[in-house]
LytR family transcriptional regulator (Gracilinema caldarium), 401 residues
Amino acid sequence: MKRLNFDSSSMLLLLIILIVVAGSFGIFYFSKTDPLEEILSDERVLNILLNLEQDHKVIGSYVILYYPPTRRASVFDVPIETGLIIKSLNRVDRIDVLYKGSDSPQYTKEIENLLGLRIPFTVTINLEQLEKMIDLVEGISLFIPEPVEQYNPKLPMLLPSGFVKLDGSKAVAYATYTLEKDAPETESAILRKQKVITALLARLNEKLTLLKDPQVQTLFASLISTKMNAESTLRIFQELTNLDVQRLGLQRVGGTVKQVSGKTLIFPFYDGVLIKEIVKQTITGLVRQGEGEFPDRVFTVEVLNGTPAIGMARNTAELLKGFGYDVLSYGNADRNDYEKTQIINRSKYPEVAQALGSVLKCKNIIHETNADVSNAAQDLSYTADFTLIIGKDFNGRYVTN
């Protein structure tokens, strides 16, 4: 039998191979970084999808954009009725048909495509968990514009108007009650869910020290369904407790309502191009640190149609709401033969007027210092920061000349 002969060169070659393999494994292992830690250390915007669930079905999806260095956050309410072409099903349908529970990658992917951004973190909270979470932070406070008198035996509810503090069960009931079974979701129902979500974020901010208690942390993490580990989940919500509640913005993805195969679908304006632009501008606002003197408040706009086109003021009002402006009113101007679109600025912030102009590509900005503006409209009180008078050079989205 022949003896195997390993000379020194063979041993050296084997040793080199082992070192290379071990080194490659080490590089692979240690290069795997926590995506959350990477985002926070790089000071990037933290994108989180919060799904609200009832009976294993999604009833609300909210994309939270939070920038820790400025403590600014914005929330986008994505309608579950959003209509799109679903390639996997080869048909046009509502986006919520893709929802399959807390782990729904296709659903998340379509929301990413809609908003034009990556959402690395998804959390799901069902109504039972939401109720317990609100009780954990000792209730939430919100404003109820009108008294609620619900005498349904299954869900009786009496709530006064004004600022009230609600425990978990009352908050969930307020967010989800409907007056008629199977009735399409009304604007008031949408606003009620939004109020509860924002009130919860505000309460987490107030209960910052509470979430540092280890026992509370364990209980809090158990009330959230996610693929993330408990440590990352808690870290995200601890970051959110630092957000500036006074500057928290919330807007709903707007669109055109249509009936398709017996279903109500909302198709995003301009084939989804508009909402992507709104998201980009929102992120720009979140990360802005001391650039210019933009005050941290919502500016008001009055929209007047100075053309014969029907519905131009209403549609433009919806457009501006999407960009975060508070539209006080819309209607017809004093005449319908304005050739050029104009913005009348009554605020003390010309740079904000320029920002509004850039949204509409309108350079015709008139800066007024008193409320007596000639020929702007018919006997209207000028309480808005800006009045937009639509001219014939406006195509529904931009000024063309």
